[in-house]
Design brief:
heterodimer, A: about 650 residues, mainly alpha, two-stranded antiparallel ribbon, 2 strands, about 70% helix, B: about 550 residues, two-stranded antiparallel sheet, 5 strands
């Protein structure tokens, strides 16, 4: 049953990618149908879990022995528990909706069948990732989603920017993957197994003193390597640089992979390995720091981008920063992190689909400075996007309000100076979130209709890419039903999911058997925190209105302050990477090539020349005269006899 | 002196003879156990009769039939003996201790017979050269006795003479080679040596084209071979003087000191270690000459180049099998008690052989000479296994010999195909771009070269690995290092030929690849098939060699 869940999209990928052109007409329907099959199976399994007792909800399906070697056992086994079923429902649910949306969005693309094949491949890999019962199988899924992400970012490979972005995403992810593989190796040497239960149990037993102690240093190393992996996949500082460029992929991909599901795999990894992090407080601190830095970093970047998708990408980084921070808080944060992950999955997917819908109506224009006043032309998009917007800024009553508020509370509850710092950071982050999201909202749907009389594209404006070859004045229009319906469904999720999960702590209790849960005790009352959050949010919205609502938005971006310019360049992340890593790497390569040319080649060629010279010299001994040969034999025999006798004498 | 006194001398002398004459015991001959050799030698004699009595037109087919049947029947007899346990539990000596019937002997006899059969196909090939005067011709001279370029030669060619004597000569050589590794006393060893050497000297001289080169090769081979035989015979005499016997087991006992009684005639010399050491060195030298080890290798390139290519292929593979078999038996059965004396010397010989074979091959420009040096280097590799002085050493050498002989016979068969107006085009420059013109032939040759180089998935790799493993376990690690380095050097010239064939521009007036008859095709196919099978799935054959790896004493 669990295996079927994965098999459905895997089958879809195989059929669509191997099927050839004769499937062009039906390919998207096959892909979508199989995504829904997977979702249906997930729902059935979920119902089955609900029917069991809270402590009895872990099912393991052992499929077959993958690598049966003495002392190295790896099984293909799947584990279904509260944590993984949550992900399954999110992945297949949002995934199915995005499949439907893509039918409309990719309608005019010749390679739509291939696109759906990749999407199905992604679903299968992501399900393997969250359902795996051991770290090795998880690694398989981890690489699988990386591959799918690479293929989909570069789907429009005719665009050099897309091809480059795909390569960049792949390379940066490799750094993280290396972390995961090292972590898995360390785990194997330390515990002799990869399976979740023995590894995590022995960590728990070791820390409680029940079993042979595993050095905290080892655990910290494992935890930090896992964090490195999470940073790569979830675009956390310092491996965040790929996510913005990944927006080169088709918008449904951005919604599914780079907003709702794959980028949250890092959070899943940390929560799943909670026991290891609990036993390594130093690593946990690093996790919270990474989360806090990324949350501010992404928010600042999001404030400056004029490209609607890149602004949302910054927001994604920032929101995942929230989740990572929460996951770093330990048992008080795990369930909360996952809850924010799920609500974020709804509203961020909805926002991206809305952005896609806007682009669809605006000739694939992505520059928000060339939007404006679109609410009249795209009412459904406006309303669904607006609901997503309210949810993300944490408007009271909507999803984001509940989940983000819980994270802020948990951050304060960390206690001590750390608690105050983390709490403040999350609060400030909430304010910035409100600011940049309001900015997006205002620039897109309100204000004057700047797209009516555009100046010729000015080359000096940063981040403005030429409109994708359509030209002329766009004619904004609402998208077809096949695209709007998924947006409406997601909007429902954005509105109600938070309340459904949050009221009565239903969600955290659901996850408690897996992730364990403790109530935090914030130094100030929960109500104060909530009030502060709402206040900060209101300030953010107000500031944004002052900047973008009251004043007209220039079509060409002004030069801006130092911070704005820095943020437009993603806070110089690429420049940093270029100077430190690329240049350094180039220098290293060049010197190695030099050594190779002079020293290694010199030795090799020298040896060859030496042997060749020796050869032609020895060849002269072979002079063709039988008498010389006989002398050689005679001499040889003499030496042979003499040597034999000498051996005895010695 | 009076007549009666003279008579008295006679009668006095004859007095003891007045007693009843002791009957001479007829030796017991185990005909069944010797049947493989008897079949082949018998067929060779039959071949001579065929030469004498069968009309000229029918001789070729009659000879081919007799030889083919004899070799196949001989192989069947070997298999039958092996199956009935003579290779393992039933191993023993036959013909009054002159011939051993045991695992290594039967294994090597089987290999020699199969290689002989494959070589027979290349001997019998008659389609490569264009027919002269309407008569199909093979690789051998029309009339060996005619002076090259003389009128009598032209007349012989015109009359359509062919030297069908090559078939019985081949059978005699095969018969001698079969006895050589099985010989269990020094005299049998020497007889076998001569029995297979003399036909080879003759065969070398019989090339149809480049006859002067061929005859020069034969003379050189004969002179140096005779020289080496003299050393061997002298060594045998010294060993007899030391042990009072030519029997292997008896000598070994004397070496080990388990024999006390001394035959009165030899009381002065018996047990004298100087005789033993010199004798052993001289006999070993004779065998090293046959395998082509440095410094007794000088004949190899000249003879390989001059001999008709089918003969070269046969000689390079089968001689090596027989000679290494004899060397193994000598060192493992006769001289194990002496191994601390011979091992260091053999170490040096093996190392020098590998290095010189590999290095000198680099600058060769003739494909046959190149393969000759390659065979020298391979002799070094095999010696490394011989020196291991452990059971794995025997079985690895047996496996290596089987693998190597098929690669060699196949490679030389390919050489016969590449021809231009002057016969075989053996200069390397003419092989440039062969892969473009005849991809299949070039690809098969590339497989043989890769096997020579010891690339995995060919028999060469499995063999080399087995030999080096045995040597390393036998404590000869430095030798293995030398061996691996020489292999690296050797890989260079093998790969260079592949590069030449596939990545060079073909020359406009380059050679053509002749379309052979099924005979040569079969030979090449068998060589390639054995090369690949032994490379991909060597385990069965390694096990076979392993179970055959015990000498009877």
């Amino acid at each position: 049953m669990i295996a079927l869940l994965i098999a459905a999209p895997l089958l879809g990928a195989a059929v669509l990618l191997c099927g050839g052109r004769r499937l062009d007409k039906a390919g998207h329907w096959i892909g979508t149908a199989l995504a829904f099959v997977s979702f249906g199976l997930g729902a059935v399994l979920f119902a089955g879990l609900l029917g069991r007792g809270a402590e009895d909800r872990t099912l393991v399906q052992h499929l077959y022995s993958w690598v049966p070697v003495e002392g190295f056992q790896a099984d293909v086994a799947f584990r279904l528990d509260q944590l993984s079923i949550t992900f399954v429902l999110l992945i297949t649910g949002v995934g199915s909706l995005i499949h439907v949306y893509s039918i409309g969005y990719m309608e005019h693309d010749e390679r739509r069948r291939r696109f759906f094949g990749y999407l199905n491949l992604f679903l299968a890999a992501m399900l393997i990732l969250v359902l795996a019962d051991n770290y090795l199988l998880l690694y398989l899924g981890w690489e699988g989603v990386g591959l799918a992400s690479y293929l989909l970012i570069g789907f429009w490979q005719h665009k050099p920017s897309a091809a480059t972005a795909a390569k960049k995403a792949f390379l940066v992810n490799r750094v993280g993957d290396m972390g995961l593989s090292i972590a898995v190796m360390l785990m194997f040497t330390t515990f002799g197994t990869f399976a979740f239960t023995p590894v995590l149990d022995s960590v728990g037993a070791a820390t409680s003193g029940a079993a042979a102690p595993v050095g905290e240093g080892t655990l910290t190393a494992i935890a930090l390597m896992l964090l490195l992996a999470a940073c790569g996949k979830s675009a956390q500082v310092p491996l965040q640089s790929w996510l913005g460029d990944a927006m080169e992929g088709p918008t449904p991909v951005s919604a599914l992979i780079h907003a709702a599901t794959m980028v949250t795999a890092g959070v899943y990894l940390i929560v799943r390995s909670g026991a290891i992090f609990d036993a390594a407080p130093d690593a946990q601190l690093v996790v919270t720091v990474v989360g806090a830095v990324t949350l501010i970093f992404g928010a600042i970047v999001g404030c400056a981008k004029d490209d609607i998708k890149k602004a949302l990408a910054g927001s994604t980084m920032s929101q995942i920063g929230y989740m990572v921070l929460a996951a770093g808080l330990g048992p008080i944060g795990y369930a909360v992190a996952i809850m924010h992950l799920v609500t974020h999955g709804f509203f961020k997917a909805g926002l991206f689909l809305g952005a896609g819908s806007v682009m669809h109506g605006m000739n694939d224009e992505v520059d928000m400075r060339k939007y404006g006043g679109l609410r009249k032309y795209m009412p459904v998009t406006f309303v669904t996007f607006g609901l997503g917007y309210l949810a993300i800024i944490g408007f009271p009553g909507l999803s984001g309000f509940f989940s983000k508020d819980l994270i802020i509370e948990a951050a304060f509850a960390k206690g001590g100076v750390q608690g105050w710092i983390l709490g403040t950071v999350t609060l400030v982050g909430a304010g910035i979130t409100a600011y940049y999201m309001t900015r997006v909202m205002l620039m897109t749907f309100f204000g004057e209709e700047r797209w009516r009389n555009l100046p010729a594209a000015s080359p000096d404006a940063p981040d403005v890419e030429p409109a994708a070859g359509h030209g002329g004045v766009p004619h904004p229009h609402e998208s077809p039903k096949v695209m709007t319906v998924p947006m409406i469904v997601l909007a429902f999720g954005s509105v109600f999911a938070g309340a459904f999960f949050g009221i009565g702590e239903r969600f955290v209790h659901w996850l408690e058997p897996v992730t364990s849960f403790e109530h935090g005790h914030p130094p100030v009352s929960a109500l104060t925190v909530t009030a502060a959050t709402v206040t900060v949010m209101a300030i953010g919205v107000g500031l944004a209105w002052l900047h973008y609502g009251r004043r007209p938005v220039p079509v060409v971006a002004p030069r801006g302050s130092l911070l704005t310019r820095a943020a437009r360049r993603d806070l110089y992340q690429d420049d940093f990477n270029h100077v430190v890593l690329v240049r350094g790497g180039e220098h290293l390569t060049r010197s190695l090539v030099y050594v190779d040319h002079t020293l290694v080649d010199g030795v090799v060629n020298g040896t060859a020349a030496g042997v060749g010279g020796l050869s032609s010299r020895m060849r002269r001994l072979q002079n063709g005269f039988a008498r010389s040969y006989a002398v050689s034999m005679f001499g040889g025999t003499a030496v042979l006899v003499a040597a034999t006798l000498l051996m005895r004498a010695v | 002196m009076s007549a009666s006194a003279v008579h008295g001398l006679w009668t006095d002398l004859a007095a003891p003879a007045a007693e009843p004459i002791a009957r001479i015991q007829a030796p017991t001959i185990e005909y069944a156990q010797l049947s493989p050799v008897l079949i082949v030698i018998g067929a060779a004699v039959l071949g001579i009769l065929v030469e004498a009595f069968v009309p000229r037109r029918g001789r070729y087919h009659a000879q081919l039939f007799v030889s083919g049947v004899a070799l196949a029947a001989g192989f069947a007899a070997v298999v039958a003996l092996a199956v009935s346990g003579y290779a393992t539990t039933g191993a023993g000596v036959a013909a009054e201790g002159a011939v051993a019937v045991d695992g290594p002997a039967l294994f090597l006899q089987g290999v020699i017979l199969l290689v002989g059969l494959v070589a027979l196909f290349t001997f019998a090939e008659r389609r490569l050269d264009p027919a002269t005067h309407g008569n199909p011709v093979d690789s051998f001279a029309a009339q060996a006795a005619s002076v090259p370029g003389s009128d009598s030669e032209k007349a012989a060619v015109k009359a359509g003479f062919t030297t069908t004597e090559v078939f019985p000569l081949l059978l005699f050589a095969v018969g001698g080679m079969m006895v050589f590794p099985a010989a269990n006393d020094l005299l049998t060893l020497f007889i076998a040596l001569e029995v297979f050497s003399l036909p080879l000297y003759l065969l070398c001289a019989l090339a149809r084209r480049k006859r002067l080169l061929s005859q020069e090769a034969a003379v050189k081979y004969f002179l140096l071979g005779a020289f080496a035989s003299a050393f061997t015979l002298f060594g045998i005499a010294l060993l007899y003087g030391y042990a009072g016997s030519v029997n292997y087991g008896r000598i070994a006992q004397v070496v080990e000191g388990t024999v006390q009684e001394v035959s009165p005639a030899l009381a002065g010399t018996m047990g004298n270690d100087v005789l033993l050491l010199i004798g052993a060195a001289l006999v070993t030298m004779g065998l090293l000459f046959k395998v082509g080890a440095v410094p007794f290798h000088m004949w190899t390139p000249d003879v390989y180049q001059g001999a008709p290519t089918p003969v070269t292929g046969f000689m390079a593979s089968a001689t090596k099998v027989a000679a290494f078999g004899a060397l193994l038996r000598l060192l493992y059965v006769v001289l194990p008690g002496l191994r601390w004396d011979w091992r260091p010397v053999m170490w040096a010989v093996a190392a020098v052989t590998m290095v010189i074979g590999a290095i000198v091959a680099i600058t060769q420009t003739d494909i046959k000479r190149l393969l000759a040096y390659s065979s020298i280097a391979h002799a070094g590799f095999i010696l490394a296994g011989v020196i291991a002085t452990r059971p794995e050493g025997i079985s690895s050498v047996l496996f290596y010999l089987a693998a190597y002989s098929f690669v060699t016979v196949g490679a030389f068969a390919v050489v016969t195909l590449v021809r231009d107006a002057g016969g075989e085009a053996t200069h390397l420059s003419k092989w440039a771009g062969l892969g473009r013109r005849s991809p299949l032939v070039a690809a098969v040759f590339a497989v043989f070269l890769l096997a020579f180089a010891g690339i995995p998935l060919t028999s060469g790799f499995a063999g080399k690995f087995a030999v080096f493993k045995a040597a390393a376990e036998g404590g000869a690690a430095p030798l293995v290092v030398v061996g691996v380095l020489s292999s690296a050097v050797a890989a260079f010239f093998y790969i260079r030929v592949i590069v030449l064939m596939f990545f060079s521009e073909p020359k406009p007036e380059g050679p053509t690849v002749a379309v052979p008859s099924p005979l040569t095709t079969t030979a090449i196919a068998v060589g390639a098939a054995v090369t690949v099978v032994l490379g991909v799935a060597p385990q069965y054959f390694l096990d076979l060699a392993n179970s055959a790896g015990v000498f009877v004493r």
